[in-house]
Each structure stands twice: as structure tokens, then as C-alpha cells.
């Protein structure tokens, strides 16, 4: 059981080293802490008491793996897309390259280093991100030329 505790603690060290621990949700962090406590209790000679937190955290991990993760990109509202296109001065059929070019042209004039405001620059950046995300969601997947 001491070896298992070392594996769990090594895993936590790896999470810290790679920066993944900072990106965990609060529930994931709590379950990881419960797993560490269970592993340490089992290593200290109390395997029955240590098994309970380990089983709880493993059950949580199993449920989380079984449940699909929420989609990172949510649908974009048509009104938001229209507003973003108007802000960047783009037509309805502008592609991703046109969005990037319009953003570069506009941000060069309103950047805070050029005398513009941070709020306007942030709004322009958000419009670019929204249009690029919308383009990626609506663009049909590219067909591969592999035989």
C-alpha cells in the first residue's frame, strides 16, 4: 500500500509540474485530495479506513469519464455575429483570412499604444475571436485526399 501512496503523490507532483493542477475544477481538486488522504491512510497501516476515500474518488473519476465533457465552443448567436462583422467592417461572406486582415488593420489604429482605449481594443479582439469561432463552427470539415 505504501507503493500505491507513492504513485498517487507522484501523480499530484506531475500535475503540479505540468500546470494541470491549476486548470482543474474545484470538485476535481477535492477528489484528488481525498484520494491522497486515502492513499496515505492505507500506507500508514489503515487499509480499511483508507479504502473508503479511495473508492469515493475512483467512483467520481469513473462517473466523470463516463459523462461526456461539455463542448468548449457554444453556439454563436446571429445577432452577435452581425455586430462583430459591423465592428470590423466585414461583409456577410468574409472568410477567416479577411477577418484577420480587418482585425490587423483596425487594431493598428485603435491600439492603446497608439492612443486608443483598452476597452475598444478588447472589443475588437473579442469580435475577431467570435467571428473566427463562428467560421470554424460553420465551415464544413475538409475532405482528406488520402486514398
Automatic annotation (TrEMBL):
Keyword entries, A-Z: Membrane, Transmembrane, Transmembrane helix
Residues annotated as signal peptide: none
Protein origin, superkingdom: Bacteria
Domain J: 83-136
SMART domains: DnaJ
Keyword Transmembrane: yes
Residue spans crossing the bilayer: 45-63
Database matches in InterPro entries: DnaJ_domain (IPR001623), J_dom_sf (IPR036869)
Name recorded for this polypeptide: Molecular chaperone DnaJ
Coiled coil (residue ranges): none
Source organism of the structure: Sphingobium algorifonticola
Amino acid at each position: 500500500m505504501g507503493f500505491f501512496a507513492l504513485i498517487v503523490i507522484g501523480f499530484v507532483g506531475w500535475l503540479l509540474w505540468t500546470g494541470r493542477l491549476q486548470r482543474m475544477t474545484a470538485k476535481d481538486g477535492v477528489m484528488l485530495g481525498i484520494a491522497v488522504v486515502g492513499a496515505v491512510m492505507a500506507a500508514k497501516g489503515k487499509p480499511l479506513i483508507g479504502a473508503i476515500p479511495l473508492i469515493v474518488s475512483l467512483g467520481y473519476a469513473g462517473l466523470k469519464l463516463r459523462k461526456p465533457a461539455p463542448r468548449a465552443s457554444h453556439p454563436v448567436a446571429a445577432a452577435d455575429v452581425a455586430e462583430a462583422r459591423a465592428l470590423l467592417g466585414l461583409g456577410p461572406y468574409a472568410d477567416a483570412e479577411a477577418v484577420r486582415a480587418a482585425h490587423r488593420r483596425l487594431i493598428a489604429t485603435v491600439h492603446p499604444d497608439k492612443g486608443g482605449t483598452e476597452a475598444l481594443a478588447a472589443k475588437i479582439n473579442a469580435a475577431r475571436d467570435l467571428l473566427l469561432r463562428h467560421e470554424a463552427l460553420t465551415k464544413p470539415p475538409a475532405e482528406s485526399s488520402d486514398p
